[in-house]
Write a structure and sequence with these properties.
Elements: H1 5-15, H2 20-55, H3 59-73, H4 77-87, H5 89-111, H6 117-132, H7 135-146, H8 149-181, H9 184-204, H10 208-220, H11 232-235, H12 239-269, H13 275-278, H14 281-302, H15 307-329, H16 335-349, H17 356-363, H18 368-373, H19 379-386, H20 390-411
Helix pairs in contact: 2-6, 2-8, 2-9, 2-12, 3-6, 3-19, 4-5, 4-7, 5-6, 5-7, 5-9, 7-17, 8-9, 8-14, 12-16, 12-17, 12-19, 12-20, 14-15, 14-16, 15-16, 15-20
C-alpha cells in the first residue's frame, strides 16, 4: 500500500531535521542572534530620555518615536513567516540581521542629518521594525521544521532567552556607555555586534550557494518551494487556531508594552533611582526563568502528560500569574516593590515561549511562520500614547493577558490542523 502524501511529507520533514550536534550549534547561534536583535531593539528605549533632552522632545513626541518601531514591526511579520516557510528561516534571519545592523549603526548619523530629528528618528525606527519583524516568524518556521517535537519547547525557550539577555546587555553596558560616551555609542555598540554575528553565520554555518540562490529567487519574485498549497481556509475554521492568535496577540502586547516603557516608568516615577538597577534586574531574572520553562515543559511531556495540558499550564504562568504582578506594578509607590513586581512579571512572561509560541508549531508546523506573524504588536505603542496614567496602562496589560489566557484555556488544542482530517491527531 502506497503511503499517503501527508505521511510522505512527515517522513521528509524528519529527514531534514537537525542532528543533535547541529541543533546545539544552531541553538547557541540563534540565542546570540536573538540577544543582538534585542540589543538593537532596546537601544532606543534606553536612550529615549537622553535623546529627548538633546532634541527637545516632549513625552508625546518620545512616544511617537518609541511606538513607530511597532508600526513597522507588524507589517513584515506575515512576509517573514511566509518567506521562512519557503526559502528557509535561517536565510531570512541572516538577510534581515545584516540590514537592521546597518540601520542601527547609522541611526546617530540619521539623527544629525538635519533639523527634523523627530522625523528622521521615526523613520529609522519604522525601518528597524520592518527589518526585525521577519525574525521571529522566520525563527518559528525554522525550528518547527528542524527540531524534534520532544525538544522543541526547550530549544525555543533557550533561543527566546536571548531576548532577556539582549535587554540585560543593553541595560547594563548601554547604561554605562550612555553615561561615558553619550547615546550614539549605544547604537554603535548594538549595531556593530550584529554585523559581526552576521559575518560569522555567513562564513561558518550557511551554504553560500543556497544563500545566493535564495537572493536570486527573492529578486525575481518567483515561487520558491514545492510545498503543497497551504490550507488557509481549513486553518482559520479551527477555533484552536483563533485561540492561538488571540493568546499570542495578548502575550505580544503585554511584553512589548513593558519592554518599551519600563525604563521611562522608573525614571519618571523614581527619579533618583539608578538606571543599571531597573534596566538589568528584571531581565537578569528572566533568563533562568526562560530556560526553566523549557526544561519543565519538555520534562512534563516526556513524563507522559498531554501536550495541550502542558501548553496550557505554561500559559497560566506566562499570561495569568504574570498579569497579577503587572497589576501590582501599577499600585505601588515603593521602588523596591516595583523592581520585584516588574522582575516577576517579565520572568513569568518567558513561560509563553513554552506555551503559545510552541503551540503554534504543534498546530501547523508547515506554515507556523505565518501563524506567528499574523498578529500585530503595534497596540503597545498606541496604548501609551493615548493613556495618561501608568496605572491604567498596567491594568490594561493585565486585562489583555487575562483575555488571551481564557481564550486559550477554553479553545486551545495541540492537534495538527494543516493536514487532511485523517491525519490531524498528533
Amino acid at each position: 500500500m502506497q503511503p499517503s502524501p501527508d505521511e510522505t511529507r512527515r517522513d521528509a520533514a524528519e529527514d531534514t531535521q537537525w542532528s543533535r550536534p547541529e541543533c546545539q550549534v544552531w541553538t547557541g547561534t540563534l540565542l546570540l542572534g536573538t540577544c543582538l536583535l534585542y540589543c538593537a531593539r532596546v537601544s532606543m528605549p534606553v536612550c529615549a530620555a537622553s535623546m529627548s533632552q538633546d532634541f527637545g522632545w516632549n513625552k508625546k513626541e518620545a512616544g511617537v518615536v518609541l511606538s513607530s518601531f511597532f508600526w513597522g514591526y507588524c507589517l513584515t511579520q506575515v512576509v517573514g513567516g511566509h518567506l521562512g516557510d519557503r526559502i528557509g528561516g535561517e536565510k531570512v534571519i541572516l538577510l534581515s540581521a545584516s540590514a537592521w545592523g546597518f540601520i542601527t549603526v547609522a541611526t546617530p548619523l540619521l539623527a544629525h542629518l538635519g533639523s527634523a530629528h523627530l522625523a528622521f528618528m521615526t523613520f529609522s525606527r519604522i525601518l528597524t521594525g520592518l527589518l526585525q519583524g521577519v525574525y521571529f516568524p522566520a525563527l518559528t518556521s525554522l525550528l518547527s521544521q528542524k527540531v524534534r517535537e520532544s525538544e522543541r519547547a526547550f530549544t525555543y525557550s533557550t533561543v527566546g532567552a536571548g531576548s532577556q539577555f539582549g535587554t540585560l546587555v543593553t541595560g547594563a553596558v548601554g547604561s554605562l556607555l550612555l553615561d561615558w560616551y553619550g547615546w550614539p555609542s549605544v547604537f554603535y555598540f548594538s549595531g556593530g555586534l550584529t554585523l559581526l554575528w552576521v559575518g560569522y553565520v555567513y562564513r561558518c554555518l550557511l551554504n553560500e550557494r543556497d544563500l545566493i540562490l535564495a537572493l536570486g529567487i527573492l529578486a525575481q519574485g518567483l515561487p520558491v518551494s514545492r510545498h503543497t498549497k497551504v490550507p488557509w481556509r481549513q486553518l482559520f475554521r479551527k477555533p484552536s487556531v483563533w485561540a492561538a492568535i488571540v493568546s499570542q496577540l495578548s502575550a505580544a502586547c503585554s511584553f512589548f508594552i513593558l519592554l518599551s516603557w519600563l525604563p521611562t516608568f522608573f525614571k519618571e516615577t523614581f527619579p533618583s533611582s539608578k538606571g543599571w538597577v531597573f534596566n538589568v534586574v528584571p531581565w537578569l531574572v528572566a533568563i533562568p526563568a526562560s530556560l526553566l520553562s523549557g526544561l519543565l515543559s519538555d520534562h512534563l511531556i516526556n513524563q507522559g502528560y498531554r501536550t495541550i495540558t502542558v501548553r496550557k499550564f505554561m500559559q497560566v504562568m506566562g499570561l495569568g500569574l504574570s498579569s497579577v504582578f503587572a497589576l501590582c506594578l501599577g499600585h505601588t509607590s515603593s521602588f523596591c516593590n516595583s523592581v520585584v513586581f516588574a522582575s516577576a512579571s517579565i520572568g513569568l512572561q518567558t513561560f509563553n515561549h513554552s506555551g503559545i509560541s510552541v503551540n503554534i508549531q504543534d498546530l501547523a508546523p508547515s506554515c507556523a511562520g505565518f501563524l506567528f506573524g499574523v498578529v500585530g504588536v503595534c497596540l503597545g505603542g498606541y496604548l501609551i500614547e493615548t493613556t495618561g496614567s501608568w496605572t491604567s496602562v498596567f491594568n490594561l496589560v493585565a486585562a489583555i493577558s487575562s483575555l488571551g489566557l481564557c481564550t486559550f484555556l477554553v479553545f486551545g488544542k495541540a492537534q495538527r490542523v494543516d493536514l487532511s482530517p485523517a491525519h490531524e491527531d498528533l
